[in-house]
Amino acid sequence: MTLHPSIKLIGIGDNGQESLLPQYRQWITDCQVLVGGERVLDFFPSFTGEKIVIKGGLSTLVEKLAKETRKTVILASGDPLFYGIGGYLAKKLNIEVYPYMSSIQLAFSKMGESWQDAYVTSIHGRPMKGLAQRIDGQKKVALLTDADNNPNVLARYLKHFGMTEYRAFVAENLQGVGEKYGWYSLDEMAEAQFSSLNVVILQQTSIPKRYALGIDDEEFSQRKPDKGLITKKEIRVLSLQAMQLQKDSTIWDVGTCTGSMAIEAGKLAPEGQVYAVEKNAPDLENCLQNQQKFRVDITAIHSKAPAGLEQFPDPDAIFIGGTGGEMVELLQLCCARLKPNGRIVLNAATIENLYKAVEAFKACNFTVEILQAQLARSKPILDMTRFVPLNPIYIISAYRKEENHE
Description:
By secondary structure, the protein is α/β, with parallel strands linked by helices. It has helices spanning 22-30, 38-41, 59-66, 86-92, 103-111, 131-135, 151-160, 186-191, 233-243, 260-268, 281-294, 327-337, 351-363; strands spanning 7-12, 33-36, 50-53, 72-77, 95-98, 119-122, 140-144, 166-172, 180-184, 198-204, 250-254, 273-278, 299-302, 317-320, 343-348, 366-373, 376-381, 384-389, 393-400. Strands 13-12-11-14-15-19-16 form a seven-stranded mixed β-sheet, with helices on both faces. A five-stranded parallel β-sheet has the order 3-2-4-1-5, with helices on both faces. Helix 12 packs across helix 13.
Protein backbone atom coordinates (compact mmCIF):
# COMPACT_ATOMS: atom_id res chain seq x y z
CA MET A 1 0.00 0.00 0.00
CA THR A 2 1.46 3.37 -1.05
CA LEU A 3 1.14 6.19 1.42
CA HIS A 4 -0.28 9.39 0.00
CA PRO A 5 2.28 12.21 0.03
CA SER A 6 1.59 14.73 2.76
CA ILE A 7 -0.34 17.82 1.74
CA LYS A 8 1.29 21.18 2.46
CA LEU A 9 -0.92 23.83 4.07
CA ILE A 10 0.74 27.22 3.59
CA GLY A 11 -0.31 30.50 5.19
CA ILE A 12 -0.24 33.55 2.94
CA GLY A 13 -0.54 37.30 3.53
CA ASP A 14 -2.70 39.83 1.69
CA ASN A 15 0.40 40.88 -0.24
CA GLY A 16 0.26 37.54 -2.05
CA GLN A 17 3.43 35.92 -3.34
CA GLU A 18 5.62 38.53 -1.62
CA SER A 19 4.65 37.05 1.76
CA LEU A 20 6.00 33.59 0.84
CA LEU A 21 9.48 32.22 1.42
CA PRO A 22 11.27 31.06 -1.76
CA GLN A 23 10.88 27.42 -0.65
CA TYR A 24 7.09 27.85 -0.33
CA ARG A 25 6.88 29.46 -3.79
CA GLN A 26 8.83 26.50 -5.18
CA TRP A 27 6.42 23.99 -3.60
CA ILE A 28 3.51 25.83 -5.19
CA THR A 29 5.23 25.86 -8.60
CA ASP A 30 5.98 22.12 -8.31
CA CYS A 31 2.53 21.00 -7.13
CA GLN A 32 -0.23 19.72 -9.41
CA VAL A 33 -3.22 20.72 -7.27
CA LEU A 34 -3.61 24.14 -5.62
CA VAL A 35 -6.47 24.55 -3.14
CA GLY A 36 -7.73 27.78 -1.53
CA GLY A 37 -10.34 30.53 -1.40
CA GLU A 38 -10.88 32.56 -4.58
CA ARG A 39 -8.99 35.55 -3.18
CA VAL A 40 -5.76 33.64 -2.45
CA LEU A 41 -5.91 31.57 -5.64
CA ASP A 42 -6.03 34.85 -7.62
CA PHE A 43 -2.47 35.53 -6.40
CA PHE A 44 -1.34 32.71 -8.78
CA PRO A 45 -2.76 33.55 -12.23
CA SER A 46 -0.03 31.64 -14.06
CA PHE A 47 -0.46 28.37 -12.14
CA THR A 48 -0.99 25.61 -14.72
CA GLY A 49 -2.20 22.72 -12.54
CA GLU A 50 -5.70 22.11 -11.20
CA LYS A 51 -7.17 24.80 -8.94
CA ILE A 52 -9.79 23.81 -6.35
CA VAL A 53 -11.79 26.68 -4.84
CA ILE A 54 -12.83 26.25 -1.20
CA LYS A 55 -16.50 27.12 -0.90
CA GLY A 56 -18.92 26.28 1.92
CA GLY A 57 -18.43 23.10 3.97
CA LEU A 58 -15.08 21.36 4.19
CA SER A 59 -16.25 17.73 4.44
CA THR A 60 -16.57 17.23 0.64
CA LEU A 61 -13.14 18.82 0.13
CA VAL A 62 -11.61 16.48 2.75
CA GLU A 63 -13.15 13.41 1.03
CA LYS A 64 -11.68 14.53 -2.28
CA LEU A 65 -8.22 15.35 -0.87
CA ALA A 66 -8.06 12.07 1.10
CA LYS A 67 -8.01 10.22 -2.26
CA GLU A 68 -5.62 12.68 -3.94
CA THR A 69 -2.23 11.17 -4.96
CA ARG A 70 -0.84 14.20 -6.81
CA LYS A 71 1.34 16.84 -5.13
CA THR A 72 -1.11 19.18 -3.39
CA VAL A 73 -0.78 22.56 -1.68
CA ILE A 74 -3.58 24.26 0.27
CA LEU A 75 -3.36 28.03 0.74
CA ALA A 76 -5.00 29.87 3.64
CA SER A 77 -4.86 33.44 4.93
CA GLY A 78 -2.47 34.18 7.80
CA ASP A 79 -1.97 31.40 10.32
CA PRO A 80 -4.27 28.50 9.30
CA LEU A 81 -4.22 27.12 12.86
CA PHE A 82 -5.50 30.41 14.32
CA TYR A 83 -9.29 30.42 13.86
CA GLY A 84 -8.59 29.00 10.40
CA ILE A 85 -9.18 25.78 8.45
CA GLY A 86 -5.92 24.21 9.64
CA GLY A 87 -7.29 22.75 12.88
CA TYR A 88 -10.06 20.88 11.05
CA LEU A 89 -7.88 19.70 8.15
CA ALA A 90 -5.04 18.52 10.43
CA LYS A 91 -7.49 16.14 12.18
CA LYS A 92 -8.69 14.64 8.89
CA LEU A 93 -5.68 14.64 6.56
CA ASN A 94 -1.94 14.03 6.54
CA ILE A 95 -0.81 17.67 6.28
CA GLU A 96 2.24 19.78 7.05
CA VAL A 97 1.47 23.32 8.18
CA TYR A 98 3.60 26.36 7.29
CA PRO A 99 1.96 29.40 8.91
CA TYR A 100 2.22 33.05 7.98
CA MET A 101 1.60 35.81 10.54
CA SER A 102 -1.99 36.01 11.79
CA SER A 103 -3.98 39.21 11.19
CA ILE A 104 -4.00 39.76 14.97
CA GLN A 105 -0.19 39.60 15.07
CA LEU A 106 0.06 42.09 12.22
CA ALA A 107 -2.49 44.44 13.85
CA PHE A 108 -0.51 44.52 17.11
CA SER A 109 2.67 45.26 15.14
CA LYS A 110 0.95 48.28 13.53
CA MET A 111 -0.26 49.33 16.97
CA GLY A 112 3.25 48.94 18.44
CA GLU A 113 1.99 46.94 21.44
CA SER A 114 2.93 43.58 22.94
CA TRP A 115 0.15 41.02 22.64
CA GLN A 116 1.05 38.10 24.90
CA ASP A 117 -1.32 39.54 27.53
CA ALA A 118 -4.25 40.13 25.16
CA TYR A 119 -7.54 38.25 25.39
CA VAL A 120 -8.15 36.95 21.87
CA THR A 121 -11.57 35.91 20.63
CA SER A 122 -13.58 35.75 17.43
CA ILE A 123 -16.98 37.10 16.43
CA HIS A 124 -16.32 35.94 12.85
CA GLY A 125 -19.05 33.52 11.79
CA ARG A 126 -20.27 33.10 15.36
CA PRO A 127 -22.83 34.99 17.47
CA MET A 128 -21.76 37.99 19.57
CA LYS A 129 -24.01 36.71 22.37
CA GLY A 130 -22.11 36.40 25.64
CA LEU A 131 -19.18 38.58 24.54
CA ALA A 132 -19.82 41.10 27.35
CA GLN A 133 -18.97 38.73 30.20
CA ARG A 134 -16.05 37.18 28.28
CA ILE A 135 -14.22 40.48 27.85
CA ASP A 136 -15.35 42.39 30.96
CA GLY A 137 -12.26 43.61 32.83
CA GLN A 138 -9.77 42.53 30.11
CA LYS A 139 -7.14 45.23 29.49
CA LYS A 140 -6.56 44.31 25.83
CA VAL A 141 -9.02 42.43 23.64
CA ALA A 142 -8.33 41.33 20.06
CA LEU A 143 -11.34 40.44 17.91
CA LEU A 144 -11.71 38.83 14.50
CA THR A 145 -14.82 40.31 12.87
CA ASP A 146 -17.01 39.55 9.87
CA ALA A 147 -19.50 41.38 7.61
CA ASP A 148 -22.38 41.03 10.13
CA ASN A 149 -20.38 41.41 13.33
CA ASN A 150 -18.45 44.39 12.00
CA PRO A 151 -16.83 47.27 13.95
CA ASN A 152 -20.05 49.36 13.80
CA VAL A 153 -22.13 46.57 15.35
CA LEU A 154 -19.39 45.84 17.91
CA ALA A 155 -19.26 49.51 18.99
CA ARG A 156 -23.04 49.62 19.52
CA TYR A 157 -22.90 46.37 21.49
CA LEU A 158 -20.14 47.69 23.79
CA LYS A 159 -22.02 50.95 24.36
CA HIS A 160 -25.18 48.99 25.24
CA PHE A 161 -23.27 47.29 28.07
CA GLY A 162 -21.63 50.54 29.18
CA MET A 163 -18.14 49.38 28.19
CA THR A 164 -17.03 52.93 27.43
CA GLU A 165 -13.64 52.41 29.09
CA TYR A 166 -12.44 50.97 25.77
CA ARG A 167 -10.98 52.73 22.76
CA ALA A 168 -10.53 50.73 19.58
CA PHE A 169 -7.69 50.19 17.12
CA VAL A 170 -9.06 49.03 13.77
CA ALA A 171 -6.68 47.58 11.17
CA GLU A 172 -8.04 47.05 7.65
CA ASN A 173 -6.67 45.17 4.61
CA LEU A 174 -3.36 44.49 6.37
CA GLN A 175 -0.52 44.21 3.82
CA GLY A 176 -3.08 44.42 1.03
CA VAL A 177 -4.40 47.13 -1.27
CA GLY A 178 -6.00 49.90 0.78
CA GLU A 179 -4.24 49.05 4.04
CA LYS A 180 -5.42 51.41 6.78
CA TYR A 181 -5.29 51.45 10.57
CA GLY A 182 -5.97 53.86 13.42
CA TRP A 183 -7.61 54.61 16.76
CA TYR A 184 -11.33 55.28 17.25
CA SER A 185 -13.57 56.10 20.20
CA LEU A 186 -16.62 53.78 20.42
CA ASP A 187 -18.80 56.64 19.09
CA GLU A 188 -16.47 57.07 16.10
CA MET A 189 -16.28 53.32 15.47
CA ALA A 190 -20.09 53.08 15.50
CA GLU A 191 -20.33 55.53 12.56
CA ALA A 192 -17.14 55.09 10.45
CA GLN A 193 -17.00 52.93 7.32
CA PHE A 194 -14.64 49.96 7.30
CA SER A 195 -13.40 47.39 4.82
CA SER A 196 -14.85 43.92 5.38
CA LEU A 197 -11.30 42.63 6.05
CA ASN A 198 -10.47 44.06 9.45
CA VAL A 199 -9.29 43.29 12.96
CA VAL A 200 -10.37 45.22 16.08
CA ILE A 201 -8.24 45.62 19.19
CA LEU A 202 -9.85 47.12 22.28
CA GLN A 203 -7.69 48.81 24.89
CA GLN A 204 -8.82 49.98 28.34
CA THR A 205 -8.34 53.68 29.02
CA SER A 206 -9.76 53.48 32.56
CA ILE A 207 -10.58 50.71 35.03
CA PRO A 208 -14.30 49.90 35.24
CA LYS A 209 -16.14 48.93 38.42
CA ARG A 210 -15.82 45.20 39.07
CA TYR A 211 -18.23 43.07 41.05
CA ALA A 212 -17.08 40.13 43.15
CA LEU A 213 -19.17 37.02 43.86
CA GLY A 214 -22.17 37.90 46.03
CA ILE A 215 -23.39 41.21 44.60
CA ASP A 216 -25.38 43.25 47.16
CA ASP A 217 -29.14 42.88 46.72
CA GLU A 218 -29.58 46.70 46.57
CA GLU A 219 -27.38 46.89 43.46
CA PHE A 220 -30.05 45.12 41.36
CA SER A 221 -33.03 46.86 39.76
CA GLN A 222 -36.07 45.28 41.41
CA ARG A 223 -39.82 45.46 41.13
CA LYS A 224 -41.37 48.37 43.04
CA PRO A 225 -43.02 48.56 45.54
CA ASP A 226 -42.56 44.83 46.36
CA LYS A 227 -38.76 44.77 46.51
CA GLY A 228 -37.36 41.60 47.97
CA LEU A 229 -38.39 39.25 45.12
CA ILE A 230 -34.74 38.39 44.69
CA THR A 231 -32.59 35.45 45.71
CA LYS A 232 -30.79 37.04 48.65
CA LYS A 233 -27.02 37.45 48.34
CA GLU A 234 -26.09 34.78 50.90
CA ILE A 235 -28.58 32.23 49.51
CA ARG A 236 -27.41 33.10 45.98
CA VAL A 237 -23.79 32.29 46.84
CA LEU A 238 -24.75 28.96 48.49
CA SER A 239 -26.95 28.07 45.50
CA LEU A 240 -24.24 28.94 42.96
CA GLN A 241 -21.78 26.76 44.87
CA ALA A 242 -24.30 23.88 44.75
CA MET A 243 -24.59 24.23 40.95
CA GLN A 244 -20.87 23.38 40.54
CA LEU A 245 -20.43 25.66 37.52
CA GLN A 246 -17.46 25.45 35.17
CA LYS A 247 -16.22 28.36 33.07
CA ASP A 248 -17.95 26.96 29.94
CA SER A 249 -21.20 25.65 31.52
CA THR A 250 -24.55 25.97 29.77
CA ILE A 251 -26.99 27.19 32.45
CA TRP A 252 -30.76 27.51 32.81
CA ASP A 253 -32.34 29.93 35.29
CA VAL A 254 -36.04 29.13 35.66
CA GLY A 255 -38.04 31.99 37.18
CA THR A 256 -35.17 34.45 36.84
CA CYS A 257 -37.07 37.51 38.20
CA THR A 258 -34.41 40.26 38.58
CA GLY A 259 -31.81 37.99 36.97
CA SER A 260 -29.54 38.00 40.02
CA MET A 261 -28.75 34.26 39.78
CA ALA A 262 -28.37 34.29 35.99
CA ILE A 263 -26.04 37.29 36.15
CA GLU A 264 -23.79 35.83 38.84
CA ALA A 265 -23.80 32.47 37.00
CA GLY A 266 -22.77 34.26 33.79
CA LYS A 267 -19.80 35.82 35.57
CA LEU A 268 -18.73 32.39 36.89
CA ALA A 269 -19.14 30.78 33.44
CA PRO A 270 -17.96 33.54 31.05
CA GLU A 271 -17.19 31.08 28.23
CA GLY A 272 -20.57 29.37 28.64
CA GLN A 273 -24.16 30.40 27.96
CA VAL A 274 -27.01 31.40 30.26
CA TYR A 275 -30.68 30.96 29.37
CA ALA A 276 -33.38 32.43 31.60
CA VAL A 277 -37.17 32.32 31.64
CA GLU A 278 -39.54 34.64 33.54
CA LYS A 279 -43.36 34.75 33.51
CA ASN A 280 -43.75 38.36 34.77
CA ALA A 281 -42.98 41.01 32.13
CA PRO A 282 -42.03 43.79 34.65
CA ASP A 283 -39.52 41.44 36.32
CA LEU A 284 -38.06 40.53 32.92
CA GLU A 285 -37.60 44.26 32.19
CA ASN A 286 -35.59 44.58 35.43
CA CYS A 287 -33.57 41.53 34.42
CA LEU A 288 -32.65 43.20 31.10
CA GLN A 289 -31.58 46.40 32.91
CA ASN A 290 -29.46 44.37 35.32
CA GLN A 291 -27.77 42.56 32.42
CA GLN A 292 -26.64 45.91 31.05
CA LYS A 293 -25.40 47.17 34.40
CA PHE A 294 -23.45 44.02 35.30
CA ARG A 295 -22.26 43.31 31.74
CA VAL A 296 -23.66 39.82 31.42
CA ASP A 297 -25.28 39.05 28.06
CA ILE A 298 -27.81 36.26 28.63
CA THR A 299 -30.82 34.94 26.70
CA ALA A 300 -33.91 35.83 28.76
CA ILE A 301 -37.43 35.11 27.49
CA HIS A 302 -40.96 35.92 28.70
CA SER A 303 -42.68 32.59 29.31
CA LYS A 304 -44.13 30.42 32.06
CA ALA A 305 -41.91 27.35 32.45
CA PRO A 306 -41.85 24.61 31.35
CA ALA A 307 -43.12 26.40 28.21
CA GLY A 308 -40.17 28.05 26.44
CA LEU A 309 -37.50 25.65 27.69
CA GLU A 310 -37.74 23.55 24.51
CA GLN A 311 -35.88 26.30 22.59
CA PHE A 312 -32.84 26.19 24.92
CA PRO A 313 -29.87 23.80 24.48
CA ASP A 314 -29.41 21.02 27.07
CA PRO A 315 -27.92 22.45 30.28
CA ASP A 316 -25.00 21.50 32.54
CA ALA A 317 -26.71 23.23 35.47
CA ILE A 318 -30.24 24.42 36.26
CA PHE A 319 -31.38 26.85 38.94
CA ILE A 320 -35.07 26.93 39.81
CA GLY A 321 -36.05 29.94 41.87
CA GLY A 322 -39.81 29.65 41.32
CA THR A 323 -42.02 26.89 39.92
CA GLY A 324 -45.41 28.61 39.59
CA GLY A 325 -47.41 25.48 40.43
CA GLU A 326 -46.14 23.26 37.58
CA MET A 327 -43.41 21.76 39.72
CA VAL A 328 -43.63 18.02 38.92
CA GLU A 329 -43.89 18.51 35.15
CA LEU A 330 -41.09 21.11 35.25
CA LEU A 331 -38.73 18.91 37.29
CA GLN A 332 -39.37 15.89 35.04
CA LEU A 333 -38.42 17.98 32.01
CA CYS A 334 -35.31 19.37 33.75
CA CYS A 335 -34.18 15.87 34.79
CA ALA A 336 -34.67 14.60 31.22
CA ARG A 337 -32.77 17.49 29.61
CA LEU A 338 -29.87 17.79 32.10
CA LYS A 339 -26.51 16.74 30.67
CA PRO A 340 -24.51 13.91 32.30
CA ASN A 341 -22.80 15.02 35.56
CA GLY A 342 -25.09 18.06 35.66
CA ARG A 343 -26.76 19.60 38.72
CA ILE A 344 -30.25 20.96 39.39
CA VAL A 345 -30.58 23.38 42.32
CA LEU A 346 -34.00 24.39 43.58
CA ASN A 347 -34.78 26.88 46.34
CA ALA A 348 -37.92 26.12 48.36
CA ALA A 349 -39.34 28.40 51.04
CA THR A 350 -42.07 26.01 52.27
CA ILE A 351 -42.00 22.44 53.55
CA GLU A 352 -44.76 21.53 51.07
CA ASN A 353 -42.61 22.55 48.09
CA LEU A 354 -39.60 20.86 49.68
CA TYR A 355 -41.56 17.59 49.92
CA LYS A 356 -42.94 17.87 46.35
CA ALA A 357 -39.49 18.59 44.92
CA VAL A 358 -37.78 15.72 46.74
CA GLU A 359 -40.50 13.25 45.65
CA ALA A 360 -40.31 14.44 42.02
CA PHE A 361 -36.50 14.11 41.93
CA LYS A 362 -36.63 10.63 43.51
CA ALA A 363 -39.22 9.56 40.91
CA CYS A 364 -36.68 10.57 38.24
CA ASN A 365 -34.05 8.43 40.03
CA PHE A 366 -32.00 11.47 41.05
CA THR A 367 -29.96 11.72 44.26
CA VAL A 368 -31.06 14.63 46.47
CA GLU A 369 -29.11 16.69 49.00
CA ILE A 370 -30.77 19.42 51.07
CA LEU A 371 -29.19 22.35 52.87
CA GLN A 372 -31.44 24.28 55.25
CA ALA A 373 -30.14 27.85 55.35
CA GLN A 374 -31.19 29.93 58.37
CA LEU A 375 -29.27 33.18 58.24
CA ALA A 376 -29.38 36.54 59.98
CA ARG A 377 -27.75 39.83 59.05
CA SER A 378 -26.40 42.31 61.60
CA LYS A 379 -28.16 45.65 61.96
CA PRO A 380 -27.13 48.58 64.19
CA ILE A 381 -29.46 49.55 67.03
CA LEU A 382 -28.29 52.74 68.81
CA ASP A 383 -24.63 51.99 69.54
CA MET A 384 -25.21 48.23 69.61
CA THR A 385 -25.82 45.47 67.07
CA ARG A 386 -28.79 43.18 66.63
CA PHE A 387 -29.54 40.47 64.06
CA VAL A 388 -32.39 40.46 61.54
CA PRO A 389 -33.20 36.94 60.27
CA LEU A 390 -33.67 36.15 56.59
CA ASN A 391 -36.50 33.75 55.71
CA PRO A 392 -35.28 30.14 56.08
CA ILE A 393 -34.66 28.53 52.67
CA TYR A 394 -34.21 24.89 51.64
CA ILE A 395 -31.50 24.60 48.99
CA ILE A 396 -32.17 21.32 47.18
CA SER A 397 -29.41 19.86 44.96
CA ALA A 398 -30.28 16.98 42.64
CA TYR A 399 -28.09 14.91 40.35
CA ARG A 400 -28.30 11.53 38.61
CA LYS A 401 -27.48 8.48 40.67
CA GLU A 402 -24.19 7.03 39.50
CA GLU A 403 -24.63 3.89 37.46
CA ASN A 404 -23.23 0.70 38.96
CA HIS A 405 -20.42 -0.51 36.67
CA GLU A 406 -19.50 -3.63 38.68
